[in-house]
Amino acid sequence: MTDATSKNRCLPVSEWPEPDQIAWALALGAYDAFDETVGLASGWAGSTQDVMAAGYGRWLNWLAQRDELDAAKSPGERATRARLQAYLETLQAEDLAQFSIAGRVKQLGRMLQMIEPAGNWVWIVRAADSLHRAAQPKRERRDIMQPPEEILQLGLDLMDAAEQDRFRTDTDRAVLFRDGLLLAFLVQRPFRRSNLAGLTLGQNLELRVVWQIRIEDDDTKNGVPISCEWPSGLVGALERYLAVHRETLFRGQKVKVDTQALWISKQGRAMGDDAIYCQIKSRTKVEFGKAINPHTFRSIAATAIAESSPEESAAIMDVLGHGSMRTSERFYNRAGMVAAGEHYHRSLEAHRTRGDNRGQS
Questions:
Q1: What is the pLDDT of residues 225-255, one digit of tens each?
Q2: CA 166, CA 163: separation in Å to the nearest integer?
Q3: Structural domains in the chain (count)
Q4: Which residues share a beta bridge with 207?
């Protein structure tokens, strides 16, 4: 019987059929001007390669759920028009956002172009483009949004409960603290979930007088590097997590795994973006009655900045790492962007202080 977890699973590359693994390895190899079948995906940014492979992994998992993942067939032989139509209907039945559906279809088409270049897959990419043009945003996004100060307070409360509740196991307390830190961090630094999951000690999160985050352009969606400080109000929580709770989570390892990933699972391994996605939705569902997905944190931050400082709403693009503004506009508005971002974070801290004062009265 198929459960929801396996149904929505993204099949990792290591579990792909051998022909698909070989074809993907060739696509990632060094580009060869004299061999048009090699290195076609080597020019993609690392983050793009990961996203595309994840989209293809979902397609393969869908085939596996239908007992149609024939390892003896090539990737192109499996991608019939009838199957693509059935795949699209499945995605639509799952009530995914229309933009997400278009993205899934395009990922599949682009991957097939990379791993089976002899085939004609333009029709899939064009179908995805048509779906994207017709897509409408899901109306319920604003319905699930919560004031950022309330999400921040939830994160702080979870961390406080982890420290105070001595009747929980050490592992449960570590998970609780980790999730609280995740929420409190994300509402102040609304990264895309791949960048959030990819935070790694010594690589893109380092203590240099202050804790600095640096994500290179190859690992961002728009090719623009991210450079910022860890939120100052969460430095103590970060250092507590690293010294105590993260170490506790490593005890869950059955086999020693060497990782510098910031976010560690209950099993002592690096958390993937899907695991982080589920934890954030689960915690917010319990607190607010509606699950908030990580991407909505970006809308929450954008809305808060626009509403608190409308004349500086261009700062939204700076805080969220959007890259569609012209270079001249970015330099011209830099002072306003920084001011609006600081205003947003001051607002969060002010709400937190007022909440603390209410608790003492």
A1: 888 888 888 999 999 999 999 999 998 777 6
A2: 8
A3: 2
A4: 211
